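Thread: "does anyone have the structure for this chain?"

Original post by V.I.:
We have the sequence but no experimental structure in hand. Need at least a predicted one for the grant figures.
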Amino acid sequence: MTLGKATVALSACLCIGAAYAAPDSRDTEVKLAKSLEAIQNNRLDLAMNEVDSLLRSNPNFKLAQLVKGDLLMARAGKLNDIGGGAKASRDKIDDLRDEARVRLQRVLSQPDSKLIPRMLWQLDDTQRYALVVDTSRSTLFVYQNVNGEPRYVTDFYITIGKLGTDKVSEGDQRTPIGVYFVRAELPKKGLADLYGNGAYPISYPNEWDKRNNRTGSGIWLHGTPSNTYSRPPRASNGCVVLANSDLDKLAPYLQVGITPVVITRQIDWRDEQSEKDRDALMQSLDQWRKDWASLNTPTYLKHYARNFDNGEMDYAAWAKQKQAVNSGKSWIKVALSNISVFSYPEQPNMAVVEFEQDYDSSNLSNRMKKRQYWIKQGNRWQILYEGAAG
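Reply from O.Q.:
Generated one for you, C-alpha cells below.
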C-alpha cells in the first residue's frame, strides 16, 4: 500500500535522490527527504522510522505529524491523498505541503558555499557576520567576515509574510526588501509566546523605504510559539521567523546596531561586472573625500545627484548650505574608516555605504558614523542620500 498518487507525485516532482549532502543545520530537511523517498519506494516502515526520529527531536513539528498520520492511514488502506489522514482545514494542509516542498528544495538545491552574494560588497572590521535572507528559498544565510570578505557559515529555514515580499504599508502582511541592521535584542522573558525564544528588531523602514513612502514598523527576526516547531513558508505578519532552536543558534552571530540583514527575493552572486561596479564606487567615495577636503565646493557638489534628498534638504538646499559652510573655512581634513558597502537588492545600480568619518577643519572637528546611498546614473556614481547612521 502506498500513500496514493498525490504523495508519490509530490516526491517524484521534487526529484528526491538517493544521496544527501547537507550541513548539520539541515538535519531536519534530510530526515524529511529520506522519509518521503521511502514513501515513494513503498518502504513505509523505513518512512515511519524517519518520521518518528523527527518527532522525537521536535514533537511539535506539524509537518512530521501530518506525514505520520498519513503513514498510519496508509497501513490501514484508508488514504487516497496526502494529508487525507489529518483532521485539519484544506488551507492548513496546503501550508504544510508548501513547507514540505520548500524544505526539500533546501536539501536538493543548496548553492555552492564558495559563491558570494552580490549584495555583500564589503564588510567593515566591526561586522563579524552578515545575514542574507533569500525569500524565494525560505532561507536565511549567515556569512562570516574574513578580512572584509564574506564566507558562508550556515543557513536556516525561515518563514516570511503571509502575502510575500515588497512591504509598502502598515499591516500589509508583507516582508520588506532592502538593507537593514539589527537594532535591539528582546529577551523571551518580556515577550508574548508568539515570538518564541526571543526577538531582534531590524531597521525597517530605512532611508530608502521612507523616501518611497513605505510605512509600518515592528519587523523582527523572532522565534515560534512554544507549541510550534516551525511555521509554513508564508505565515507571519511580515517578520522573518525561525524555529526556536535555530534562533538560539543564530543569536551568537548577531551584534546589536552592527549586524547587517539584507533581505532579497533571490540572491544574486558576485560576478566580474559587480566587482567592477564595487571598485568604481570605492574610487568615487575616495574622490568625494578628497574633493571635500580640497575646499573646491563646485567639484565636491558634483558627487551629489540632482535628485538628492536626505529627508530635510533637497539638492538645492544642500548645495547652498555646503557653499556657506565651506566659505568660512581655511582648511579641511577628512578621513574615513570602517567602510562597509552593500549593493541594494532589486536595485542593481544603488548601494548603501557606511563609514566612520573623522572630520577636522579650521573651526570645527567631529567624528561620526555616516550612511550614504549611492546611485549609478550613466557611468557615474553619485550620492542620493547622506546622513548619520542609526
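V.I.: this helps a lot. DSSP finds ten helices and 16 strands in the chain.
O.Q.: and The longest helix spans residues 272-293.
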